[in-house]
Amino acid sequence: MTVATQTGGGHVQRGGGGSSGLADVVELILDKGLVIDVFVRVSLVGIEILTIDARVVVASVDTFLRFAEATNRLDLYGKGKGGKDLTELTQGVMEGGAKGKTTGVIDAAVDKVEELLGGNNREEEREEAPRRRRPQRTREREA
Amino acid sequence: MSATYVYGLVRSDAELPDDLVGLGPSGTVTTVVHDKVAAIVGDVPLDRPLGTRDDLVAHEAVVDSVAARTTVLPMRFPAVIEEEGVVGELLAPHHDRFVRALDQLEGTVQYTLKGRYEQDVLLREIVEEDSGVRELQERIRGVPEEAAYYDRVKLGELIVKALEERRDVDAKDIVDRIGPFAEAVSTTTPTQPEDVVNAAFLVRRDGAEEFEKAVEELGADTGEWLHLRLLGPLAPYDFVPEE
Amino acid sequence: MGIVSGLLGLPVAPVRGVLWLAQQIQDQAEQQYYDPARIRAELEWVDEARRTGELSEEECAERENELLQRLMVRRA
């Protein structure tokens, strides 16, 4: 059963040990682990062997359209209530980017995101951030 | 002749949790011991082929519950063998190999870390930085969906490419930062454009707390743009020695 | 039977180009249908739907079994 739990500071979603989602389980036990030839023989006796290939897909037109749509939706939102227009956003990035050069990529990205979400206006950051972010998977669910 | 399901292998002196529930009709999980190695086994449903979601979930739950307590070599699903063959065909002929692998992994446990971009944050950043993207967006605006089909495909392609370029950099940063807390790292190339990292870390049990703390700190630093999931402790799926 | 062959297989027999095209469409549709990466993405989507409560536990389990069947058909 899937139970999404938060531990510690709660910045990382936890799973595993019987509480992973099926997608994770499939990846762990169908792609990996020990295979011994004696098991293969049994498959001939009537139990199907399932082999999964983990090949990397080349992004398809479907994927491209999905991202085009997401990007356009984003733009519409930016034009909507409380959103910044492109010029303001661009300024934010320039500032964030310049600062970032001295702090390493991850820190730079964090800086940049902070700029994007709030700029210098802390009030706005608090108000805007939760709506703009992807819904966080923090809620616990009964198994 | 009856069939037996094999979940994994442990040292014969290993202690297993007593609340394991298998995928067979009885749900029972026991061990078959041969010299220094033991197979974790159970019964098999005979009236249907294996492979339901409950089968998979049960396999993983047994293996990883054992892994939380002791070193286990996990079997790939589905591992079925005739009951009479567990010792004669599985344990005895491969005994030394199994012992070597268990010794190699002794005292370690796997964690799998998966990271995915917070989509909107990254898309916004890409729109900012890429004038080609903005141009295309302008061109598409107000044009009926059908008419702008190729422009939309092109736009999506640019976005996906930009995501993948960022991913290469960010994934390396993440692995570089967490890697020092692990004995070994094994990374898998993500399949979705918004997936950043999928990495397995082999961690010493006595260093697990520190490892988890490092991941938690990474999560705190990157939470605005990265959604991290940590699976584990798990069996060392990605570190089973090849023969 | 192929996904598309049921629709296109009957009346167009002699036209080679059309058959070739139909075959291409069918190949692509099947490739996508059985694409492990796509199936995994759908499994993740079901996980998400279970978390948010969008689908009930029964609906999720049913959908998951269906997706697993598709993963297994490949090399049966």
TrEMBL record, chain A:
Basic and acidic residues: compositionally biased ranges: 116-130
Location (main, coarse): other
Record key words, sorted: Gas vesicle
Annotated localization: Gas vesicle shell
Domain of life where this protein originates: Bacteria
Region of interest: Disordered: 116-143
Subunit structure: The gas vesicle shell is 2 nm thick and consists of a single layer of this protein. It forms helical ribs nearly perpendicular to the long axis of the vesicle.
Role according to the record: Gas vesicles are hollow, gas filled proteinaceous nanostructures found in some microorganisms. During planktonic growth they allow positioning of the organism at a favorable depth for light or nutrient acquisition. GvpA forms the protein shell.
Similarity remark: Belongs to the gas vesicle GvpA family.
UniProt protein name: Gas vesicle protein A
The species this protein was found in: Pseudonocardia yuanmonensis
Gene: gvpA
Automatic annotation (TrEMBL), chain B:
Organism in which the protein naturally occurs: Pseudonocardia yuanmonensis
Record-stated family: Belongs to the gas vesicle GvpF/GvpL family.
Protein name, as recorded: GvpL/GvpF family gas vesicle protein
Main location: other
One Pfam family cited in the UniProt record for this chain: GvpL_GvpF
Organism phylogeny: Bacteria, Bacillati, Actinomycetota, Actinomycetes, Pseudonocardiales
Coiled coil: none
UniProt cross-references to InterPro entries, sorted A to Z: GvpL/GvpF
Keywords for the protein's UniProt record, in alphabetical order: Gas vesicle
Compartments in which it is found: Gas vesicle
Superkingdom of the source species: Bacteria
UniProtKB/TrEMBL annotation, chain C:
Listed name of the protein: Gas vesicle protein GvpG
Upper lineage: Bacteria, Bacillati, Actinomycetota, Actinomycetes, Pseudonocardiales
Taxonomy, superkingdom: Bacteria
